[in-house]
Every structure is written in structure tokens, then in C-alpha cells.
Specification:
This protein is an alpha/beta fold. The protein folds into two domains: 155 residues, Glycogen Phosphorylase B (Rossmann fold, 3-Layer(aba) Sandwich); 150 residues, Rossmann fold (3-Layer(aba) Sandwich), CATH 3.40.50.2000. A six-stranded parallel sheet has the order 2-1-3-4-5-6, with helices on both faces. A six-stranded parallel sheet has the order 9-8-7-10-11-12. Helix 2 packs across helix 12 and helix 3 runs parallel beside helix 4.
Length: 334
């Protein structure tokens, strides 16, 4: 039976992995590890690799304490390779395409990998500029059971924005360009505490009638969606840091029963029929009557959201990691 170690910061158990604040860890590593655990695969977690696992999966490293963590992780990867362990890097943000605190780590880690896994086709192309080995695409999973859209409660819609604080600049650019003061009842922003603190100190930049700050949690986002009518998620369409992002926020919003107004990131384009494009469609019509989009949301929940279930994606992770452990051909897609 295959053995796996997940190289991940601040985690020493599967339960901690499932509750990670990093969506790219929770929706990817936790999805895979939960599925593997149910199939009897032996796994370990944390920043110290114990024994000789068949596969070492390198999760998102994050910027926290990167000066010490980066060299420590590289040492763990080197040692694992020397013992015959296959190394798999889950590359979720294109840190090799711009200068970031994590760039140097990935620059050194990539050549040590047997396989790179990415969340989108565009990220696959980005990674191929820096890694000549096999690169596979596995979606982020969705965390929520689909919820049907609800009737509109206010005369004007309540909007919800959610995401990492690094995406706030795209929301502000949108609000600066489009006057929503007479187009919505309120805006709920759901993000981590650092993001909420920044929003609180910059409230004047958010040109909406009412602004509500909601601390992010899995259940907190679900509860926020219940009182909202539309998900507004402007994206970094032309930003190389963000353009390779997964479809996670789009799929999550649809699963939560919300019509989505967004930009057409490359990972969103295959699902173009299910959302309103800020640049191409009349999103103001959606704000005027969100209920017209409910049929679109219901179709997405029937035909699209199941592709992102933890069961489906867990199967893919297991197949890929088993191939890697056996030294087989991991280059073929699903």
C-alpha cells in the first residue's frame, strides 16, 4: 500500500489539514488526503518527513517565515529524493512569473520534482516555462452542498464579495469604475482578519450604501451567502499573479446559490454560460433583477458543480499519486 507525506506548514494531522486557512491547501491537499484516508492509504503531515514515504507532496509554502521555512523545506525535499521518495509539487500560484517571497523556493524546488500538479490549464502553461517534466491539472474541490437560489428580499440586491485580501484591489478597481450606490442595498465582504482590518481602515474607498464585514470561515461564508443575492468577484484578468487562478470562487458561489458577476479568467471561460461577464454582458441588468439568473445557477448546480466534488477529485488525486509512487507514466490527463 502506498505511503504519502504531505509537506505543509502548521499542520500535523488530517483534521488540521481540513481546517487550514489556505484555500489552496484545504481544497486540494485536504480533499486528496481525506479521500486517501478513506481508502486506507498511510499518510503523515507536517514539516518533518518521517521514514521513507513513497510520495512526498509539497503543498503551498506561503510567505510566513519563508526565510527559514524555504531552506528547511528544500532540505526535506533533497533528503526524501536521496531515499528514493517521489516528489510532487502542488503549484497553485505563479510565483515564478513575478517577484514574490516564495519565488526563490519554487525556483529551487521545481528541478527536484518528479511531477507538478496545478489548478488550471493556464497555470499549466505557466509552469511549463520552468519545468520540463510532467505537469497535470486537477481542479480545486468545492466545500459546499449546493443550495438553491432564494427569493430576493430587498428592493435592491445584497452583494457578496469573498476571497483572499490580495484580491481586494480588483474589487476596489471595479467599485471605482462603476457607481453602485443606487444599484445595490449593501455589500458583504468575507475575508480573513487581516483583510477585514484593512477594509475597516479604508471604508471610504468602498462606494456602496452599506458595507458589512464578515470574518471568513467555511460556515461563515455559507451563512453570508444566505442573506445575499449576487456574488460580485472582479478578478485579476490581466495580472500574471492571478490570471492562472483556479475556478474555485466561481464554482463556490454557484454552489451557494448565487448568480455570479465576474471577469472571464481563463479557468472560468469553459463555464461561460453560467456567469455574467463584467466586460461583455450587462451586469447592471443582473443587479436590477437577479432572479432572472436563477435558472442559470440551477443548471450549474446540476451539470457543473458535481465535477468539482471531493469524491470525483479525490479519485483523480489517488490515481495520479499511485502512478507517481510506482514510477509509472504520470503524463496522461484524465
Amino acid at each position: 500500500m502506498m505511503t504519502i507525506h504531505w509537506l505543509v506548514g502548521g499542520v500535523s494531522s488530517l483534521q488540521q489539514l481540513r481546517s487550514s486557512n489556505l484555500a489552496s491547501v484545504r481544497l486540494r491537499a485536504a480533499c486528496a488526503a481525506t479521500h486517501l484516508a478513506a481508502h486506507g492509504v498511510s499518510q503523515s503531515f507536517g514539516e518533518d518527513v518521517q521514514g521513507v514515504p513513497d510520495v512526498l507532496v509539497v503543498c503551498k509554502i506561503g510567505a510566513n517565515n519563508i526565510g527559514a521555512r524555504g531552506p528547511a523545506w528544500l532540505s526535506q525535499i533533497h533528503s526524501a529524493r536521496q531515499r528514493g521518495t517521489k516528489v510532487v509539487i502542488d503549484y497553485t500560484d505563479h510565483h515564478l512569473g513575478h517577484a514574490s517571497p516564495m519565488s526563490d523556493f519554487y525556483r529551487q524546488a521545481m528541478p527536484l520534482s518528479d511531477l507538478v500538479i496545478v489548478p488550471s490549464e493556464l497555470m499549466k502553461r505557466y509552469a511549463s516555462e520552468h519545468f520540463a517534466g510532467p505537469i497535470l491539472h486537477i481542479f480545486d474541490s468545492v466545500e459546499y452542498v449546493s443550495t438553491a437560489p432564494h427569493p430576493i428580499r430587498e428592493e435592491m440586491p445584497v452583494l457578496m464579495w469573498f476571497g483572499h485580501p490580495s484580491n481586494l484591489e480588483f474589487l476596489l478597481n471595479f467599485l471605482d469604475r462603476y457607481d453602485l450606490c443606487d444599484r445595490c442595498h449593501a455589500l458583504l465582504t468575507v475575508t480573513d482578519n487581516a483583510g477585514l482590518s484593512w477594509i475597516e481602515s479604508h471604508r471610504s474607498l468602498f462606494k456602496v450604501p452599506r458595507l458589512t464585514l464578515v470574518p471568513w470561515s467555511i460556515d461563515g461564508l455559507r451563512k453570508a451567502a444566505i442573506v445575499c443575492d449576487v456574488a460580485l468577484i472582479p478578478a485579476g484578468l490581466d495580472d500574471p499573479r492571478k490570471s492562472g487562478a483556479s475556478a474555485n470562487r466561481l464554482i463556490t458561489a454557484l454552489a451557494l446559490g448565487l448568480p455570479v458577476i465576474t471577469h472571464s479568467l481563463e479557468s472560468y471561460r469553459p463555464y461561460r454560460e453560467f456567469y455574467t461577464d463584467i466586460d461583455s454582458d450587462s451586469f447592471l441588468d443582473v443587479l436590477q433583477n437577479p432572479g432572472l439568473e436563477h435558472e442559470k445557477v440551477l443548471r450549474a448546480q446540476q451539470f457543473l458543480v458535481p465535477e468539482f466534488s471531493q469524491a470525483v477529485l479525490g479519485d483523480r488525486w489517488q490515481l495520479v499519486l499511485e502512478r507517481a509512487a510506482q514510477g509509472g507514466d504520470v503524463s496522461c490527463e484524465f
